[in-house]
User: Which sequence fits this backbone?
């Protein structure tokens, strides 16, 4: 693989994992708000 | 746009803007004489490692503050920071491996810096696991705070491992007694902006993660209360002899 290939892999892993991590927090906040609303 | 909506969205907007800036600078900065274009991986790897230190340092401060004050706010800060720190540590390890394969010829070597970073990663994974061993919020906070304090000893161990032992890993490039080893100003700017961008990401994630813990604590408290029998059901109204 070329140097640019390794660079693309590194940026893909970083930005992709960050999107998943941030997305999971956003979803969990939405679910917590929903279930709190249902209980109350 | 209401203030509440703005508060919900600014962390996500800050993450996108800061990462876009860091990405642009990393791509327009020149290639390194020795590493070539692989140096661009360093604009991610170094900030990820620094933010892991910062996150675990905040966990340490939050743990100490909790043990002193017993306020759950500090426990929430420590927990949120530990989770984000584990993410950044894992990211730093993976990025280091992606850089090491074309540079050193191997994905991994049992070098002091790499080994100690892996141990730190697993210790803080253990911290997160420990928090799940009980539903009692006081026991959870107490146990986690002790590990949050003890675990922090690894931060200087990992950072100074490249100075204290002979390692394959490079020594520090920025904070050195004789000044930064990076001479090209554009490369230095790309690295510093990368660290700043990741710091913005960390702060934004902390805001949302603390909000999540707060909501989950509220939900758990409401559920615990809902499970309790209502006292009124067991009480019979006294017969006062009046009209029924």
Assistant:
């Amino acid at each position: 693989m070329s140097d640019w290939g390794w660079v693309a892999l590194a940026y893909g892993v970083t930005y992709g994992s960050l999107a998943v991590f941030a997305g999971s927090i956003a979803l969990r906040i939405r679910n917590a708000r929903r279930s709190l609303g249902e209980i109350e | 746009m209401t203030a509440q909506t703005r508060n919900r969205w600014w962390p996500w907007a800050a993450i996108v803007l800061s990462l876009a800036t860091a990405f642009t600078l990393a791509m327009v900065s020149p290639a390194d004489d020795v590493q070539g274009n692989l140096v661009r991986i360093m604009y991610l790897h170094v900030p990820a490692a620094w933010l892991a230190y910062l996150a675990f340092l905040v966990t340490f401060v939050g743990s100490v503050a909790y043990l002193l004050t017993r306020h759950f706010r500090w426990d929430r800060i420590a927990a949120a920071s530990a989770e984000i720190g584990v993410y950044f540590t894992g990211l730093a390890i993976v990025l280091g491996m992606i850089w090491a394969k074309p540079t050193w010829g191997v994905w991994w070597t049992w070098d002091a810096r790499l080994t100690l970073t892996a141990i730190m990663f697993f210790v803080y994974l253990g911290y997160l696991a420990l928090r799940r061993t009980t539903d009692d919020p006081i026991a959870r906070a107490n146990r986690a705070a002790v590990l949050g304090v003890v675990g922090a000893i690894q931060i200087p161990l990992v950072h100074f491992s490249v100075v204290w032992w002979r390692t394959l890993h490079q020594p520090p490039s920025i904070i050195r007694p004789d000044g930064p080893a990076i001479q090209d100003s554009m490369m230095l700017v790309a690295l510093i902006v990368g660290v700043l961008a990741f710091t913005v990401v960390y702060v934004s994630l902390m805001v949302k993660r603390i909000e999540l813990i707060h909501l989950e604590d509220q939900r758990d408290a409401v559920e615990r209360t809902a499970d309790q029998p209502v006292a009124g059901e067991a009480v019979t109204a006294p017969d006062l002899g009046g009209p029924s």
